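Most newcomers find our protein records easier to grasp once they have seen one. The structure tokens are whole numbers drawn from a learned vocabulary of backbone shapes. The record below serves as our worked example for the rest of this section.
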Amino acid sequence: MIWIGGPPGAGKSTIASRLARRHGLRWHCTDTTTWSHRDRAIAAGNAAAIHWEALPVGERGSAEDAELLAMSLHAERGQMVLDDLAALPSAPAVIVEGTVLPAWAVRAGVIDRARVLWLRPFPEFQARALAAKGSARDRLTVLLTETIAAEWDGLPVLDVGSGVESAIRDVERLLGPALSAGPHACDRGERRALLREANLAVVEQVRAGSRRPWAAVDPETARRRFVCECGDPDCDADLDRSVAEAAAGPLIVHPA
């Protein structure tokens, strides 16, 4: 496993997807497991998860800081991520990225700290990155940023402020030995299968969210960023497509 953590708006998904394509690795975005993790928390009787689900959508952001953070399931999802990773095939190597990667697992030696990096975005960079996704640096984002900073204190950190391309070069340099160690995808067919898997995980994320009792969206017309599935290690194309288009795939900009 190679871990890329950090708060929302740090560039994690862009960086991880680029490096996974370049090096022939599996890309696991923890955002795609948000709803399955919420269902697991509810099934386990987690009071914060149950309360969040029952609240009217417009009232969720008005909770006190401690309650808002608890309802995000930030702490609980760390172990769920480890459980998900344990179920993945042993090869190729996995680049895991997300806000909920548990720092305690690094300190406990579950993950080698030479294979982890936390991205710490400058506020201006974070605001721009969130705005590009149609989001904002709201109170929960600030809380998560502060919480993760405290959790990862003393662990490998990269400050991100000059742009994503520069950050990609820095991450590749700092995690170079882990990226090179592999194991890597054997051929272009396996690379394509890995990218298809990553895109379908986003499809399921959107569809799972639309199945919540309070949701009022048509998941098939929702548009998201997907990755080109051509399997060329030099391809870094991202595609704006509807969920229906991505599900029908494959999404290939540069055919062989």
About this structure: DSSP finds twelve helices and seven strands in the chain. Strands lie at 2-5, 26-29, 94-98, 116-121, 157-160, 223-227, 238-242.
